[in-house]
Specification:
This protein has helices at residues 2-46, 92-101, 114-122, 124-127; strands spanning 54-55, 58-63, 70-74, 133-139, 144-149, 155-159, 169-171. By secondary structure, the protein is of the alpha+beta class. The longest helix has 45 residues, at 2-46. It is elongated and about 75 Å long. The N and C termini lie far apart (73 Å). The model has no long low-confidence stretch (mean pLDDT 85).
Length: 172
């Protein structure tokens, strides 16, 4: 009978210990969950890029209304050139390839649309753009594509075989 009482007592003690461990684990997990929410919120608030900020491998030149998304311009023009073009100048096809192949810590760069390029023009001093013509990815027709003159702001449609500079952009 004494053995039976001791076994019952041991079982109760073990059950209480297990219950205490479970409650302790639950509190620890809950505490970490709450703390992680504060850390994620603090990081989100701390990383709200502004126009002109160095961010994501380039310079921010557009931020949407939420402040969480926008566009980044590479810090430098795409290097290289298309066949029979001077260094730094590409035909439209080479511009698209050059922008897509650009890697400055990220592999998602692309040639901006004419609207994105115009937005970049409006922030050209923050992005350090040259007073030159830059290609956009927007086509005018089968033989022509849109570009923008960063010296005058003029939006142009020109032959895809013409030579212009390329500044890659990416989303954030």
């Amino acid at each position: 009978m004494t053995v039976s009482i001791n076994n019952n007592l041991n079982q109760r003690i073990n059950m209480r210990c297990l219950a205490k461990k479970s409650i302790t684990r639950l509190w620890v997990v809950s505490l970490f969950a709450v703390l992680s929410m504060f850390v994620v919120s603090a990081i989100s608030l701390a990383v709200t890029p502004k126009i002109g900020d160095s961010y994501g491998g380039g310079t921010v030149f557009y931020v949407d209304g939420t402040g969480q998304h926008g566009l980044i311009a590479a810090k430098v023009d795409v290097t290289g050139h298309s066949y029979r073009k001077d260094e730094g100048f590409f035909n439209w096809y080479g511009a698209k390839d050059g922008a897509n192949a650009f890697v400055e810590g990220y592999d998602d760069w692309f040639l901006p649309t004419k609207e994105q390029l115009n937005q970049l023009y409006s922030q050209r001093s923050a992005a350090g753009m040259a007073n030159s013509v830059y290609w956009s990815s927007s086509e005018g027709d089968v033989d022509n594509a849109w570009a923008q003159n960063f010296a005058s702001g003029e939006v142009l449609v020109g032959k895809k075989t013409n030579g212009s500079r390329v500044r890659a952009v990416r989303l954030f």
